[in-house]
Design goal:
It is a single chain. The protein has two helices and four strands. The chain is of the alpha+beta class. The protein has one domain. The longest helix has 23 residues, at 2-24. The radius of gyration is 20 Å and the shape is flat. It starts with a helix and ends with a helix. The structure holds zinc ion. The site of zinc ion (ZN) has 7 residues, from loops.
């Protein structure tokens, strides 16, 4: 019984923490370019090449909206659309 209570408490804490976390840290480093905004292909020796192309996942910003924040943005846009 105690284990169930603890699990419930942890779940509730996570559910409460995630939206707050998304509110204060809405952006995270792009998973694809690691926040650089560009891709630097490496040659056989692992050295970065001169040419760098912009990352298409983050549109060369190096940042991506977190999933929770993206859902929030979409809901807000829909709400604005409905209440106009
Ligand atoms: Zn990127």
């Amino acid at each position: 019984m105690r284990g169930v209570l603890t699990a419930t408490a942890i779940t509730l804490a996570a559910l409460a923490w995630y939206p707050l976390s998304c509110l204060f840290h809405p952006l995270r480093d792009c998973w694809c370019c690691k926040g650089a905004g560009v891709h630097r292909p490496t040659d056989d020796q692992g050295r970065p090449r001169r040419i760098a192309r912009p990352c298409r996942w983050c549109k060369a910003t190096g940042k991506r909206w977190r999933i929770g924040r993206r859902i929030w943005n979409r809901m807000r846009a829909r709400h604005r659309e409905a209440t106009r």
